[in-house]
Amino acid sequence: MSVKGGRGTVEEWFRRRGLPLVVRRKVVGAALLQRSTPLLVFLLALDPILSVLARFTDVPQAEFDSRVANSGYVVALLGLTAAALIVPVFLGWLVAWIMRRASKGVNLVFALVVVLFSIIGLPALEHATGLRELLAPTVGINALTVLAVLAFVYTGLGSILAWALRAAMRQFRLVGQLTSRALPLLMLVVLFSFFAAEMWQMAGSLPRWRMWAVVAFLIALGVLFLSAITSDELRELGRSRRDNGVVTHLAGTPLDGLVPEEGLGQPHRVRFTERANLVLVFFFAQALQIAVFGMLVFGFFLVFGALSVTPEVAKAWSTHDLSRGELFGLHLPVSNELVQVSLFLSVFSALYFAATMTTDPVYRKSFFDPLIADMRVSLAAREVYLARWGDEIRHRHADNR
């Protein structure tokens, strides 16, 4: 029976799948610092881009309107926005990829450099370039951020967050599938609402804080629905892991070939922390699909509304003068009324997609069943991991008492 990986390789595989609480060994010392480095690099790249973007858009209304008329300004604004979404994720992934292949000594030195630059170097650089006015508060905030990242990694939340970012990138590969299969049918449902004057009156008259309250209410409904679905599916998977055929799910994993000769024996009881980790990962996997779909719908309505609804028509529908569009403090080259309508319809559409993804056979096969298959692999791998190294783990815990 061929052995594909030792215990360390298997535990790293679990962490990369967002399941650090399945692993029965804590990350401490230099390993903790090194595992925190990709997330620190992500934050290092994101901070200056957001500072430049805020400086780019924090201008009076009249000046912003004149700048939007310049196509070069619009292109630069879109470029900065795209950079804020892509560059930090790419650099974090690149650093993680490089560190997996570098020696421990090189990784430790690089991690120390990143920590020092995060606390001292970046605040000093931003202060020198005028992006930050006060140096000492920024140093303190960055030091607390580094400590928070280390705590994230120590508790396992860092692995879950890293997995979530990788999963988000994988979900963007499904944009074509989402656009071709889910978006057209949904447009038939909500497109008429977009052209309803009552929709513009309702959404356009709400202050932004109240619109966010409406969005939060709809998201809460979606969370309750996903929580119920997740609980039911994991309960069913828990019953299926009693089937000895789970070994077939391990092909291509580090646990392929690691099944003990005497077999797996009785299924191991899932601890509360493990169940919470499994539920969180499964929930995030669904939520990311839904979030990507919601962003697609939001972008569609922004572009579609800018092309098809003139300012005069939007003013007539909303029954008041249009105001400047803004989202998360960033000024947009569209009206605030269009932003509000697009935001409401995108969240409603995401809620509709969440329901159909698990109940409609076509949607379930395309978007939900792959998540179930992935979770089945994780549960099968856990059984083999505990069957092979369970005695070693128990003896070590007994020695530490």
From TrEMBL:
Keyword Transmembrane helix set for record: yes
Keyword Translocase recorded: no
Domain of life: Bacteria
Entry keywords, A to Z: Membrane, Transmembrane, Transmembrane helix
TM segment ranges: 32-53, 73-98, 105-125, 145-165, 185-203, 209-229, 278-307, 338-355
Protein name per its UniProtKB record: Integral membrane protein
Native organism: Herbihabitans rhizosphaerae
